[in-house]
Amino acid sequence: ISLDKLPVRALDAIEENGVERYPHELSYDEKRVSLIRRIDFAWALWQWQSMVENLQLAHQELSVIIDLINTVEANDAVTVAGMTRPKPLPNEVLSDLAVSAATKLQCYRHLGKYFKQSAKALEQQIAREARFYGALIRLQQNWKVKRQRSNEGFTIDLFDNSLYDSARPSSLSVIHIEHDSAGMLAINLPSNSCHSLHFGFLGDSQKESMSDDESVKETHLLLREVHQSIFNDQVFDMVNREAFNQSAGVNVTGIRENYLQLSIGQGTSLFISLVPSSKPNRISCEIYLQQIVHEHAFIKGKDRGSGLLGHFSLSLAHRIFSNRVLMKLENVVCRVPYLHLMTHPTWHSRTSSWTIFMKVPQSILHVEKSQFRTKVVVNDDRINVEGEGAPNVVGLFKRSSEDICSVNKYDCDLADLPVIILQQVASQVIRWLHEEALMVGIKTNRDFLCLTFELEQGETVSLVAHVDPEDIQGCISWWLVMEDGEDWKLQMDRKFLGHLSLDVLYSTLMDLVSLCG
Amino acid sequence: MDSPTQNTSLQRLQNVEKRIVRVLELAGGVMDELANPTGPRKEFINNHCREFMKMIKDIQVTLRDEIKSACEYRPFEKCDYSSRISNEICCKKLEYVLSQLDAMKQTIDEYQGEDVHYSLE
Fold first, then answer.
1. Cβ-defined contact of B25 to A116 (cutoff 8 Å)
2. Does the beta carbon of B28 lie under 8 angstroms from any beta carbon of chain A?
3. How far apart, in whole angstroms, are the C-alpha atoms of residue A293 and residue B71?
């Protein structure tokens, strides 16, 4: 049986008029507090109270001590004579020992870990730096590496102050050495710094595929480029400085940025510029200009004057002129099969020299002399031709090298050069034929380009050379001219023989000889 | 000590660095051994400390030598920038000559090719 409690509430009071007064309904917190009040804390209270008392006593003692310390601190007359610790109990001693031992072991463990971690980190750093310093030392063998005081970095100084004392250090002269992302040595150049750079810049994408060795070589190559570029800047500076000097012998006809246009001599115009694309046919001039600037850099002082550019422009003018001379000579030589052209190095920038050889067929007696030489020498723009004549027969039998050859020597100008050469050669052929005829006992008359045989009854037959530089089939051609001496006005017959080789000429000569004989 | 193959200054200094790393490792090993709860082994500690002292001595000797020889080095005494430029100019001359020779060879080849062509006809 269970009984529900009736929802009966206790009455507090009832009034005369029947109104019921109920007690005040307690809130949840109030109910809780009243329940707690009903618990008996007597047992705990006593312990709490003793703890409170202990703390109060301790607090009092501490206050006394603090007071005492403050007094001692403030008062110089009173000092602490000594302090003793209360003697520790055995279990306290042991526990202190245990704690300190444990602390020590922990310190050792920490130290051990610290040392090992440091060793590892140092090892990695060493490996990174070994690559960097290995590369730096390789570069240092060729370049001036300097240490910066400010930030412990390195730079490479490309300026050579021992030579170009009149030049200023270029902004390119100092190259900063940096680290790339992997810690390896790298140099970066501003994009528009170098006039003659052909390579791109060091970038990470390139680095991945490059070994350390390739990377150092690449850096070395870049430094070479910059070093040369600085020198090129100085060459250009020198040209600029001297070009405006009147005594240099050149006129400035145009100026642009990094570009100078000059006129030299008669109608030769050239430019010097600092752009990377240099036309191939100017390379040798470029090299020569660089060379003479470099050589003259060793001359200290101001006595250089305008010598460099003047000398260079004269050399250039000579080069251009001698190219034209060579072209004329080649045109002549390639059209005459028995001529050979040889170029001689003169080791002088304003002199050129060639020899034209003519080889004649060997005959019985002429064992030594089988070729005739014509020498062409050009100094600046003056041409000198030196032609060897036929050998002196007496001298030949004496077998002495002097008096063997007579030499014609004369100056000429460019337009006349081909004709002069051909005439010289043709006269040498005539002389040779004359000698050959003499060898077989026939006397002939030799004129400049003509060999005449006397026949009976005053008739003559002549072998006549004709030179024509424009003749495509051959510059030297031959005519046979027959004259009737008595009645020369009427009888003159000429036969064109063509462009004969020397062998054919010789056999023609022998035919004529037999005709005379 | 250094073997005869390590004859550059840089290699000797890099060796010193490696030894420092080794010295740190030895110190760490000794500390770990001292932290051993059953107590450190005497032999182990002795060996490590002996090697430690030997390494320190090697480092000291090498560094002393290197510092002495570094002081003798006068920087940029023989600057070769000028002869470098000379060489660059010579290189350019050689390149130019080579290009001329190549052109000559090409001309010769063309002539010989022509001869062959004519003889076939």
1. yes
2. yes
3. 37
